[in-house]
Amino acid sequence: MAYGDTQATEPLPDDMLPAASPPPRRRAWPWIVSFAIVAVLAVAAWFAADAIARQVVTGVVRDQVRTQLALPADQQIDVEVAGAVIPQLIGGSLDELTIASDDVTFSGVTGDVSVTAQDVAVRGTGEMSGATATVSLDQSQLQTLLATVEGFPSDTVGLAAPNVTMSMDLQLFGVAIPVGVALTPTASEGQIVLSPASLQLGGTEVTADALRDQFGRLADAVLRDWNVCVAQYLPAGVALTGVEVEGDVLVADFDVDGAIATDPALQQNGSCA
């Protein structure tokens, strides 16, 4: 028997044993990606649902406006709801609602209208916290409004910011002499008040005193204020707060009483003091 066959086998030292392989690490990124995909899909679903809700709400508002104001079925009405719609519907009111339309007619007077309301109830009936509105009139629309004022030469009306312009003939020794007048608009107790700001005679600017010296009491016809009642065309809950000429339109601003949605008295046409 060979020596090597009888030699006892000794165990290998620990530092010579092969190192055990560590367990495979589970990669986290697939889970992160999966979560991100789910989150994106959830957000997309939310926005899709909110977009549908927005379409429904704006459609209902358009239909109600056309019905309440007896507007044509093809009347273009822009409706905008601020913020996410679904949480507001759950809460029972719209935080801010803007409605705008051009060429809206009220009692024979036509203008471009924009209304912004806050806290508008979407279920049942309820007051809103308030609203503001603007009505814009171009030259032709303003002429139609001023034609309702007795003695006003509405066919001569123009717009030259910041004033409304008009001209009137004064008779002197049987001769008609045109006088040009620039009128500054202001708001007072439901009326647009047009007050003379400057005068022109024969293309030359003159003072009120010079006009009186030349025409006497006849000059009072162009030196007077003109009061234009607009409250009679609008609900009593809509109050005129300001008016000015901006570019080629006259813009009137209004405050709307929040109780107009529930108070029949505020829904009736107003009047001027």
Verbal overview:
By secondary structure, the chain is an alpha+beta fold. The protein has a domain of 147 residues. Helix content is 27%, strand content 37%. It is built from 7 helices and 12 strands. It has a 6-stranded antiparallel sheet. Strands 5, 6, 7, 8, 9 and 10 form a 6-stranded antiparallel sheet that branches. It is elongated. The relative contact order is 0.10. The mean pLDDT is 85.
On the 0 to 100 scale, the average pLDDT is 85
Compressed to H and E, one letter per element, the order equals HHEHEEEHEEEEEHHEEEH
Distance between the termini: 137 Å
Query: C-alpha Rg, in Å?
Result: 37 Å
What sort of overall outline do the alpha carbons produce when their principal axes are compared? elongated
Query: Share of helix among residues?
Result: 25-40%
Strand order of the largest sheet: 1-2-3-4-12-11
Count of beta strands: 12
Structural class: alpha+beta
Total helices: the number is: 7
| Beta-strand proportion | 35-45%
**Poorly predicted parts:** none
**Biggest sheet architecture:** 6 strands, antiparallel
